[in-house]
Structures are given as C-alpha cells and as structure tokens.
C-alpha cells in the first residue's frame, strides 16, 4: 500500500541538475505539511479502503465488485506510465488535490452500483490514483529534504522519520474504516440498501474533509525555481516533457538500481493483494467467519501503523534500510511457511488469537516494506522523483491486477509457493543492490 529527495516547485523546469541548490521555504519546520498530508490520506483511504473491502460482498451480481477492482488496477497500471509527466506539469500539490476527486467519485458510484457507474468510476480512479501516489511520494520526500537542509539534519534520517509518520498514520485507515463499517452495518441492516447508503454517505463526508485538507499544504520549491517564473515557460516545456517521458521510461530499464528494486516493488503489490483477497478468503473466513474479517484487518492495520512509525524512526541510511527490510522479509517468510504447512489451532479462542497473530505479522511486514521502499526510492533517485514513484505504482498495481484476475484459477497453496519464490528472488535482488551501492561508497551508506 513514499518519499524522495530533490523537489521542484509547482512551476519549475522539468529537469533539475544535481548541482542546483535547494531553495528553502521561508518557514523552518516542514512537519506541519507532513501532519496535514498524513491526516488527509487517512481520511480519504479509511473510506475508500472500507468500500474496496466490501466490493466482493455487496456488488456480487455478475461479479461486478471484483471485476471493477480488476479494471481499477489495470487502469492504474496504464496511467502510471504517464503519471510522472502529469505530476511534473501540475506540480505535486495540485496532483494531490485533483487525485482526490477519483476516490470521491468511486465511493459515490457505490450509492447506485451498476456497470454504467462503477466501471467508468474505476477507470477514472486508476488515473487519479496514479497521480496522487506519485504526487505523494514526490511531495513527502521534497518536504523531508527541505526540512533536513534548513535544520541541518541528516537527510536519510528525516526521510525515514517523515515516511514513518505518513505510513504509520495511513495504516490506521484499515482499523478506523473497518470500525466505522462495523458500527453502521451491525444493526441487522448490513445487507439493505438503507444501511449501505448511510455508510457511503458518511464516507463521502469524511473524504470531502480530507480533500479540503490537501488545499492547506504548502507548495514546494527547488533550485531552478525563480520568483518570476511564468506559467508560459511551463507550457513551452511540455513538448520536451513528452520526450523526457519516453526517455525516462526507457532509461529505467537501463538503470541497474531501479532494475534491482523492481522485484521488491512487485512483491509489495503481491503482498497487498494477498492480504486483501487470499488471506481473508482462505484463512480468516474459514477459521473465525465472515464477521471476523473486520477484526483481522483491523489488527493488520494497527500493527502496520505501529511498525511503520517504528521503522521510520530507525531509518537513517542504506545500512539501516537493509537491516529493516531483512527483518520484514523474515517475518513475511514465517507467515507464508506457517500457511503452507497448514498449521492451525483447533481451540476456538486460541484459533482466533492465532489468526489475529498472523494478521498482525502481515501488518508488520507490510509496514516495514512500504516505509523502507519509499525511503529507498527517495534516497537513490534524487533527480527523477516523479519517475521513481511512478515505477512504484506501475509494478505494484500490475501485480495486484494479476492477483485479482489469476488467483481464482489457482489453488491457495500454489499462491503461497509463488509468493515464497518471489520473496526470495526479490530479497536477493535487494541485497545485491545494497552491496552495489555500498561498494560505490555512496553517502547513503551510513
């Protein structure tokens, strides 16, 4: 389910040379923007996340809910190819604000769900999700970098702290969203139109407040930003942006660092889809029933948030990232091996605790992976933050879409084996990257 290091102003040339000094914001502390960004995403995604979790149970006619999710992630994969260009033109703050509209429309479509409302809303949300996540990664990292420079702090540590706060708060969306859903649908009318309508109306109000919060973010400036920079200069640079986009997409596959990160990015998407779909369907529901799904995912979200905050605090550079990712990979492997061996506890209460324990472990590993992936991209790709975070969403959403379309046709055991193989390969690739960057005497290696 984000960071970077060099940022450009909302009206800045698209390519920023390394030697350009960062123009600092007039205010010294940038933590205010992190608080606002984190809270805004929490409000938007507690509503969207809960709505997404309900798709397979509420919109069952002709598999409308599941199909719409598959379409959503295919759309997200496609639009992520162009998201970096869009964010460069709009600026990260504007991309964040516009991106919220897709989530509002998607939840509104659930008030009258059918093929003519939910499918177009899913396609549009794919576009909005691509720019909001690229904008988020770019904005958060440039904020961290500005804060580090103006306060004379270690850049890697600040990036870790800011990512830890963001992902820690963001992870609470699973906990709060599921509690709201349980409270509004537990009065016996959970399957009625009246009950679900009230739920989605409440969600729309919550999301609207989150969208309004986005407007209070400060715009960010970089070294090439000038006080007198004209909007016409941005327009003049758009044709070069198209060339830059093609160059960025092709250069990605010649950048060894990105090639070595892509497997871990892909696994993070696979892990997300596994927790949402496979784990709840084949592990939670048979053990503690459908009513236990909300409790299990709440535990998942709570431990995800706690671990994100802790991992962010411990991040200072590539060495710490390597150690933390290693821990997360180990935890993930333990869960998969326990599931593969079909280990279970027959006792009712202990069985429930065991399922919650597995959900908590999945939350811990997800919190580690998302925090460290975003910090790593921010540290390694200072000169193309938008492109780096676009790659993050391309590969994550592609693997999520694959799971939605392929998983129904293969067994649960086969899914676990595939995940274990990909986990091993992606972790080895990550270790190779750590050795490569470390041996190059990178300043990140501290």
From TrEMBL:
Q: Which domain of life is it from?
A: Eukaryota
Q: List the subcellular locations.
A: Membrane
Species for this entry:
Pisum sativum (Garden pea)
Into which family does the record put it?
A: Belongs to the unc-93 family.
> Which keywords belong to this entry?
Membrane, Transmembrane, Transmembrane helix
- Which InterPro entries is this protein grouped with? Ion_channel_UNC-93, MFS_trans_sf, UN933_plant, UNC-93_regulatory
A UniProt-annotated Pfam family: UNC-93
Topology versus the membrane, per the UniProt entry?
Multi-pass membrane protein
- Return the protein name: UNC93-like protein 3
The family database entries (PANTHER family) matched by this protein are listed as: PROTEIN UNC-93 HOMOLOG A, UNC-93 RELATED
């Amino acid at each position: 389910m984000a960071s970077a290091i060099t940022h450009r102003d909302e009206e800045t040339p698209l390519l920023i040379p390394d030697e350009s000094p960062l123009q600092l914001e007039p205010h010294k502390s940038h933590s205010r923007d992190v608080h606002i960004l984190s809270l805004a995403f929490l409000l938007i995604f507690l509503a969207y996340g809960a709505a997404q979790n309900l798709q397979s149970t509420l919109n069952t006619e002709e598999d409308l809910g599941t199909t719409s999710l598959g379409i959503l992630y295919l759309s997200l994969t496609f639009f992520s190819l162009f998201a970096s260009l869009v964010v460069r033109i709009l600026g990260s703050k504007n991309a964040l604000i516009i991106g919220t509209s897709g989530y509002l429309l998607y939840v509104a479509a659930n008030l009258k769900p059918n093929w003519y409302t939910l499918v177009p809303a899913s396609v549009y949300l794919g576009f909005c999700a691509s720019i909001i996540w690229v904008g988020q990664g770019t904005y958060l990292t440039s904020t961290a970098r500005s804060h580090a420079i103006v306060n004379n702090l270690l850049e890697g540590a600040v990036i870790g702290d800011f990512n830890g706060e963001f992902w820690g708060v963001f992870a609470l969306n699973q906990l709060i969203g599921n509690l709201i859903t349980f409270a509004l649908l537990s009065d016996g009318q959970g399957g009625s139109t009246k009950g679900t309508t009230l739920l989605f109306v409440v969600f729309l109000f919550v999301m609207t407040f989150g969208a309004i919060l986005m407007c209070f973010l400060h715009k960010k400036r970089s070294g090439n930003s000038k006080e007198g920079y004209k909007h016409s200069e941005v327009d003049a640079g758009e044709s070069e942006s198209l060339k830059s986009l093609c160059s960025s997409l092709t250069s990605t596959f010649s950048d060894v660092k990105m090639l070595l990160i892509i497997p871990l990015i892909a696994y993070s998407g696979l892990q997300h889809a596994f927790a949402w779909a496979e784990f709840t369907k084949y592990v939670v529901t048979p053990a503690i029933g459908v009513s236990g799904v909300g409790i299990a995912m709440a535990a998942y979200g709570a431990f995800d948030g706690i671990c994100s905050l802790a991992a962010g605090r411990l991040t200072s550079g590539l060495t710490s990232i390597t150690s933390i990712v290693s821990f997360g990979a180990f935890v993930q492997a333990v869960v998969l091996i326990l599931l593969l061996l079909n280990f279970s506890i027959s006792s009712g209460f202990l069985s429930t605790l065991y399922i919650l324990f597995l959900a908590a472990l999945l939350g811990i590993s997800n919190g580690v992976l998302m925090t460290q992936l975003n910090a790593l991209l921010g540290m390694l790709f200072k000169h193309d933050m938008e492109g780096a975070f676009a790659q993050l969403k391309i590969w994550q959403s592609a693997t999520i879409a694959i799971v939605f379309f392929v998983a129904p046709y293969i067994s649960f055991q086969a899914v676990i084996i595939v995940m274990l193989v990909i986990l091993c390969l992606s972790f080895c690739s990550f270790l190779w990257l750590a050795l490569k960057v470390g041996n190059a005497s990178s300043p990140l290696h501290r």
